[in-house]
Amino acid sequence: MSLPVTLQINVAPSDIKHLPVILPHQLEVWGSQCSEILIIHDSQKANTLFSKGDWNTQAQQLETFLQSLSSSLRVLSVDYTETTKNKMNHYFFQNQPIPDKDFRGGPFYAYFYGLFMAQNDWILHLDSDMMFGGQSQHWLEEALHFLETDEHLLCCCPLSGPPT
Question: Are the C-beta atoms of residues 2 and 33 closer than 8 Å to each other?
Fold first, then answer.
């Protein structure tokens, strides 16, 4: 059952080592539950641990991999133009600028770009290195129910590991 939810996954060149294995897993677990699948490709390099290795080779490998994906997915490169930044600054932060990277050089603007480009109001955001167990085909439906009926909830997160 497809719900009005965007499955939004962020990827970058440094993800190419694990992406061919983990992305199919993510799509298998969540893809059939979502009405849109959006892959957000952040090609902007930061000078931190997030861009170690041969960035140019990884970027080319990622580009080739993304081109091989199903046409049912939308793959968008992060738009860092001033026009788009201004629209997003206004939409999310009352015209305050959104930094490109977080304090460690990790993605920040790219996450908001994915939210901004999603066609649905409900978004299941993933990073490219997240794996899921249980294979629940009802989790999103249950999460939407809680989000729609409890005004105190901001978000719902799948259990990130075995119960404690």
Answer: yes
The identity of residue 73, as a single letter, is L
Give Cβ neighbours of residue 122 (< 8 Å, ≥ 6 apart).
3, 4, 5, 6, 144, 147
Q: Are 127 and 9 in contact (CB under 8 A)?
A: yes
- Euclidean distance between CA atoms 71 and 106, whole angstroms: 28
pTM score of the predicted model = 0.88
The whole-number average pLDDT for the span 7-12 is: 95
Distance CA 26, CA 23 (A): 5
Give the Cα separation of 93 and 10 in Å (integer).
21
Q: What does the pLDDT look like over 58-103, one tens digit per residue?
A: 999 999 999 998 888 999 999 999 999 999 999 999 999 999 998 8
Tokens of 100: 């490109």
Instruction: Reduce the secondary structure of the chain to three states and give it as a string.
Output: CCEEEEEEEEECHHHHHCHHHHHHHHHHHHHHHEEEEEEEECCCCCCCHHHCCCHHHHHHHHHHHHHCCCCCCEEEECCCCHHHHHHHHHHHHCCCCCCCECCCCCECHHHHHHHHHCCCCEEEEEECCCCCCCCCCCHHHHHHHHHHHCCCCCCCCCCCCCCC
The residue type of 84 is T
